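One thing: can you check what follows?
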Amino acid sequence: MKIASKIYSALIFIFLYAPILVLVVFSFNDTETGSRTIWSGFTLKWYKMLFEDRLLLEALTNTLIIAVITAVISTALGTMAAIGINAMNKRTKKVMLTVTNLPMVNPEIVTGVSLMLLFVFFVQVFGGKSLGMVSLIAAHITFCLPYVILNVLPKLRQMNPNLYEAAQDLGCTPFKAFYKVVLPEILPGITTGFIMSLTLSIDDFVISYFTSGTTQTLPIYIYSMTRKRVSPEINALSTLLFAVILVLLIIVNVRNSKDKKEGKAN
């Protein structure tokens, strides 16, 4: 039975990761035709061509700017929201957690279309520019916010609720008590929420597609490239994206495992 379960697990992992492995390998394939079946030798020319593409670099810059701004704002708002939710009574807290979970379980295409209609409505009523960088950042904050809240809340629950009041009794101002006592306790959750927001923002396509207007992000640029033909440059670009997301996820998992060990030790 154990052997069968191991074989089954191995097949699942092969099914999930074999396409990615093929993509990574053939991003180094030295072929003029971009063949994905014949290995012609090792090369880095597709990566070189990738970074000589002005439109791609522009899309990459847009993606990084949006991701960083989204992560910073989502982390700040999500931390404040988590502190507020944690202070609520049981019934109100359940209602707020349900509302928080809605953007996560809602289909992305529904979220994308609804946000697009909302932004277009605001532009028509209040004037201003059409969809672009601002609408993208607002849309990304919308779906990143719940992840920050759900990462910070467990840390608030683990913390002794009397510490904050004790710090104030010892002479700290409310802000200083939060900065010196509460913030260090919930910092791992804040960091994890920030990294997840960054990862989700970089990776998002569906919501970005509906709310981007004329602004291109990296996933949208990749989609536009695949509509013509699958160039080896896409393999190189996808490999770099996969590597970045993998590194960020490893950091999140390492931090979570350290937090669990520290929790058990305490």
The chain has two domains: 1-43, 53-265.
